[in-house]
Amino acid sequence: MFPRDYNENPFIVIWELTRACELKCLHCRAEAQYKRHPLELSFEEGKKLIDDIHSMNNPMLVFTGGDPLMRKDVFEIAKYAINKGVRVSMTPSATPNVTKEAMETAKEIGLSRWAFSLDGPNAKIHDHFRGTTGSFDLTMNAISYLHELNMPIQINTVISKYNYDYLDEMAALVEELDCVLWSVFFLVPTGRGQEKDMITPAEHEKVFKWLYELSKKVNFDIKTTAAQHYRRVVIQNKMREKANSHEGSSIHYQDALVNGQTGQIDGLGRAPKGVNDGNGFVFISHIGDVYPSGLLPIKVGNVRETPLPHIYRESPILKSLRDPDLYKGKCGVCEFRQVCGGSRSRAFAITGDYLESEPYCVCLWQTNNVGYGN
């Protein structure tokens, strides 16, 4: 794979196969419904979309929803993508659709990873957040199936005021479940998600520092979503540690994010650099509409009308999202704007302007006490 230029190709593509889902999650971005939409992209249209995705330097492809398993042809679609060499993962909902037979089929076709959501360390917290009694038990059963099949497990958790006080217990559960990745989402008020459900800016900062310390102790990787300012916290902590060790404080951004033991980028998964809405990341809805992300509801095209590569490369909105010099307020002058940039989704949700400052970041960009490399 050639080096990836985010102006040309995304690192990750999310395809919302359907909005149908049996759960009623409090934060649901998609405001999912019980029945499938009649205008969902067809199997043939999906194959054309996969061809276009593959042509963009073969980014990672994630099937999401709703619940991808509500589509009967989900494994045919996945098989087509995998046979082309596309790296595919899936985030199904924990419903009776998640059977051991479904997982066996996924493994047979070569699906690289399954991700399940756990938003609390017990049924009371998780089921409240997911709006469905029994969701926690179904999730735990599904994870046990994956262990039996020796399939890697990713846990997704949305941080909100409902589970903020239980993060230590959550981390212990993720470790106990022998997961390869904990993907930590920070709530953006869109869809059913409300601003009143979010933790405060100061609590964001506290969680970021806690995640950084946790990342040095656990065996699983930690990745954040809608928390670009976690990168700033990682950099600042590593620079402080280097200064305290009398090795000097000058450090490159990329070096600051790389774990010296694993060679991977702490908090960023395996992306070669940070991704953001429309900048290394793009979202296709169930009916083919294209958005910078599923959390930034500004339509930039439709794959039924225009090929995805053209939309991604030529959309004026996506181009502006990829230019940190256009950011406003403190994000526009912050020296971390190239590596962080703040959540463009949250800026839009709170201010109505996707180029405004990240409203849930406490950074005041006064970092003159440490030196930075280029």
From TrEMBL:
InterPro entries: Aldolase_TIM, Elp3/MiaA/NifB-like_rSAM, PqqE-like, Radical_SAM_PqqE_MftC-like, rSAM, rSAM_sf
Domain Radical SAM core residue range list: 7-217
SMART domains from the UniProt entry: Elp3
Keywords: 4Fe-4S, Iron, Iron-sulfur, Metal-binding, S-adenosyl-L-methionine
A Pfam family assignment: Radical_SAM
Origin superkingdom: Bacteria
SUPFAM superfamilies assigned: Radical SAM enzymes (SSF102114)
Cofactor or coenzyme needed: [4Fe-4S] cluster
PANTHER family associated with the record: RADICAL SAM DOMAIN PROTEIN, TUNGSTEN-CONTAINING ALDEHYDE FERREDOXIN OXIDOREDUCTASE COFACTOR MODIFYING PROTEIN
Protein name: TIGR04053 family radical SAM/SPASM domain-containing protein
Organism: Evansella alkalicola
